[in-house]
Automatic annotation (TrEMBL):
This is EboA domain-containing protein. It comes from the Bacteria.
Length: 302
């Protein structure tokens, strides 16, 4: 049976919104389903802010999250707010969103959208049919200087990995490093690692060291099996000169490069110092998700 994101979100909202807010949701949903102008659709998305607050998290339980991720693999709405969810549910009520006319309506919503509305629209991308129609818009979000807009596209969503070409994908990953967005939450990163992405990450590390600046621990997440000797030399330097977080990220990168068991004296010493951390990461298979362990109070998701 086909997963119905609109129905799933509506069920979650029904249990969380007030009676008045649910009345608005039901009325607005019916109005949109019966056909509204692009202007009216945008207006209803804006009006949602009267019935839900942006600062209230959706607060999904693990049992609620699992079917959502199963329905749309790679989609993790654990960080959504109640208001974003309401707006996205209304957007998904648009009739025949597979039609050629829908992208114009979707784009119109951005023309007068405030920051919060734009974030909701970007978060909706993995739920829209024929997603290739929205690549230009998604790339615009990734170019934004506003971190929340970038993260609305890039994090917890299968959309970029599914639809971005290699150039756009690498730009997204490198920008995430620059602005310190949590790269482990970029769905599909491990699947789309490449020699070119590894080279770009190592170039970035060299540039920062030449300027006397610290290398972001997330840089090493981009190496994977493409670290090579150049990458291992850079990781050895990080183990010698980096802070605790940098050293741990370097060890994870070495493990991901398949070199953790290599007979190198410098590596044996570092491994002995961080054995509990490495064993914890090993249980996760040294995937991109293991980088969440770098923070003492790491955020998690199923």
């Amino acid at each position: 049976m086909r997963f119905d994101a609109a129905e799933a979100l509506s069920a979650l909202l029904g249990a969380r919104l007030s009676h008045a807010a649910n009345t608005f949701r039901s009325s607005a949903t019916n109005e949109i389903r019966n056909g509204v102008s692009m202007q009216r659709l945008a207006q209803l998305l804006a009006l949602a802010s009267r019935h839900a607050r942006a600062g209230v998290p959706l607060a999904l339980t693990p049992d609620e999250l699992r079917p959502l991720n199963a329905g749309v693999p790679g989609w993790h709405p654990a960080q959504w707010s109640l208001l974003e969810t309401l707006r996205i549910a209304l957007l998904l009520a648009f009739p025949d969103s597979e039609a050629d006319a829908f992208p114009a309506a979707f784009e119109h919503c951005f023309q007068f959208a405030d920051h919060g509305e734009s974030c909701a629209l970007y978060r909706a991308l993995p739920l829209l049919p024929r997603g290739e129609r929205f690549v230009w818009r998604a790339r615009e979000g990734c170019r934004s200087n506003m971190r929340p807009l970038f993260e609305a596209v890039a994090l917890d969503s299968p959309y970029p990995a599914q639809h971005f070409d290699d150039v756009a994908w690498r730009q997204l990953v490198i920008k995430a490093i620059f602005i310190d967005a949590p790269l482990w939450r970029v769905d599909g990163l491990d699947r789309r690692l490449s020699p070119e992405l590894a080279r770009m990450a190592l170039d970035l590390a060299d540039e920062r060291r030449s300027a006397g600046r610290a290398v972001s621990p997330q840089t090493w997440l981009c190496l994977g099996p493409y670290a090579g000797e150049r990458g291992l030399r850079a990781l050895q330097t990080e183990l010698a000169e980096g802070d605790e977080q940098g050293k741990r990220s370097a060890l994870l990168a070495i493990a991901r490069a398949g070199a953790l068991s290599a007979g190198r004296d410098w590596l044996r010493t570092a491994f002995a110092t961080h054995t509990p951390f490495i064993e914890q990461a090993r249980e996760d298979g040294f995937t991109q998700r293991t980088f969440r362990f770098l923070s003492p109070q790491h955020e998690d998701r199923p």
